[in-house]
């Protein structure tokens, strides 16, 4: 049975709840303490982005299995303003230089797979997966 | 890799906990280089420390172990900053090598043939402050032996200035053999530059021609740093100035052309403001300084004079050029 958790993000409490759920699942899936902290940081950043730029959205975390690999998937979705220039926000030094934290390039580095889809005035969906080694 | 790192770290920590010796700390410092070479992140280092420590110390209080959760969390941020730094450094290296190729290409735009005539002793040096130069120089002997020289300076620095510089080169190539009078040359170039350059950029230039038949030297200037004219018989330097607007400001500009005779030993000096704006002890050097530096070296060849002047001014500025530096001397031999 695959574990799935949804957390609504509309306050900083939501961010903490998402972190908590993420850390718990990461531990259950079997990640070590460093990877647990990485996954949690990734969730934290994604949830913060929702909270700061889209007001509200959702973090979904689930266990995944594919071709003998096991891992954990994070899906962050919102119905916010969307991102105009994806290439720009994925650039190193773009968000961090403004002191906003790890930013999306950071999330990409913390995880193994990363995908982003964004539509102006529709919202953004970010999917990130970390695989067990 | 992880296993051997674990082993190494365990040995180091064991030895340090036993002796508290500086040697163990020295090993740790060397070890940190190895970790970075292997792309080990700060959070992995913290985690390595904890697992080794847990193995070495029996009955570690729970608070100590728990406190590492906090440290680990904080270190994730440092780890990200570290990786970002690495990727930015790689990108910088990429840009640097691209710029090197561009600078190499730019150098091919400058003339490099040896000047070897009975009558003329010629020398030039041009050194960019950065990788790309906003200075341009030119020299060429036409089919009847007239010798043209020019120095141009794009106002602005770096890549945009360097790109404008190539325009001057191509515009000069389109001049026909008949267009050799300095004022006429500057008028043609001005038309090209005015049409092709951004409003906030402009180019200063001095262009001269030596006619060996008559021993006359003619020149015109587009708002360029005045050169010098050395009269051998009187042992005096004069400023080389002519009226004219910088290139690229107005479509139709007339340039004043001046001329004089070069006697044996006389020479003209063209330069860019990178020479006169050399700063020694925070102060711009005076044009007189340049003159007296040349005067001390009259016995040398034109090329030796410009080389030595550059070396001396470069040294006086502690090898930090603030502007592109171009210096050219054309002397009539005895």
Automatic annotation (TrEMBL), chain A:
InterPro entries: HATPase_C_sf, HATPase_dom. Residues 34-133 form the Histidine kinase/HSP90-like ATPase domain. CDD domains: HATPase_RsbT-like. Pfam families: HATPase_c (PF02518). Signal peptide: none annotated. SUPFAM superfamilies: ATPase domain of HSP90 chaperone/DNA topoisomerase II/histidine kinase. This is Anti-sigma regulatory factor.
TrEMBL record, chain B:
GO terms for molecular function: phosphatase activity. Keywords: Hydrolase. InterPro entries: Bact_Sigma-Reg, KaiA/RbsU_helical_domain_sf, PPM-type-like_dom_sf, PPM-type_phosphatase-like_dom, PSer_Pase_RsbU_N. It comes from the Bacteria. Residues 121-332 form the PPM-type phosphatase domain. This is PP2C family protein-serine/threonine phosphatase.
């Amino acid at each position: 049975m695959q574990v799935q958790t949804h957390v609504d993000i509309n306050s900083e409490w939501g961010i903490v709840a998402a972190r908590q759920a993420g850390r718990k699942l990461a531990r259950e899936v079997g990640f070590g303490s460093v990877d647990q902290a990485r996954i949690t940081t990734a969730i934290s950043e994604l949830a913060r982005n929702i909270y700061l730029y889209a007001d509200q959205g959702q973090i979904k975390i689930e266990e995944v299995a594919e071709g003998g690999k096991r891992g954990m998937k994070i899906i962050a979705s919102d119905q916010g303003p969307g991102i105009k220039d994806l290439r720009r926000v994925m650039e190193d030094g773009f968000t961090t230089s403004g002191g906003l934290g790890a930013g999306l390039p950071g999330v990409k580095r913390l995880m193994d797979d990363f995908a982003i889809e964004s539509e102006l005035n529709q919202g953004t969906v970010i999917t990130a997966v970390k695989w067990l080694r | 890799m992880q296993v051997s790192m674990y082993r190494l770290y365990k040995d180091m920590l064991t030895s340090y906990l036993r002796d508290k010796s500086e040697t163990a700390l020295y090993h740790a410092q060397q070890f940190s280089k190895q970790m970075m070479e292997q792309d080990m992140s700060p959070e992995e280092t913290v985690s390595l420390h904890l697992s080794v420590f847990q193995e070495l110390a029996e009955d570690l209080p729970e608070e100590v172990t728990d406190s590492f959760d906090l440290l680990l969390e904080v270190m994730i941020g440092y780890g990200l900053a570290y990786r970002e730094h690495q990727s930015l450094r790689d990108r910088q290296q990429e840009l640097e090598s691209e710029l090197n190729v561009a600078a190499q290409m730019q150098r091919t735009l400058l003339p490099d043939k040896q000047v070897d005539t009975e009558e003329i002793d010629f020398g030039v040096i041009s050194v960019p402050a950065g990788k790309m130069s906003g200075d341009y120089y030119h020299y060429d002997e036409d089919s009847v032996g007239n010798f043209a020289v020019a120095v141009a300076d794009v106002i602005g620095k770096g890549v945009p200035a360097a790109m404008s510089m190539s325009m001057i080169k191509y515009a000069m190539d389109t001049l026909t053999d008949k267009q050799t009078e300095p004022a006429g040359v500057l008028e043609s170039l001005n038309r090209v530059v005015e049409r092709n350059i951004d409003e906030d950029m402009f180019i200063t230039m001095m262009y001269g021609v030596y006619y060996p038949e008559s021993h006359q030297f003619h020149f015109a200037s587009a708002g360029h740093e005045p050169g010098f004219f050395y009269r051998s018989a009187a042992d005096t330097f004069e400023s080389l100035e002519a009226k004219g607007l910088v290139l690229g400001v107005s479509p139709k500009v007339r340039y004043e052309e001046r001329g004089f005779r070069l006697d044996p030993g006389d020479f003209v000096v063209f330069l860019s403001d990178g020479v006169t704006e050399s700063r020694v002890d925070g102060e711009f050097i005076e044009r007189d300084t340049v003159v007296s530096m040349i005067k001390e070296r009259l016995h040398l060849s034109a090329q030796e004079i410009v080389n030595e002047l550059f070396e001396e001014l470069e040294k006086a500025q502690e090898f930090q050029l603030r502007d592109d530096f171009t210096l050219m001397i054309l002397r009539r031999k005895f």
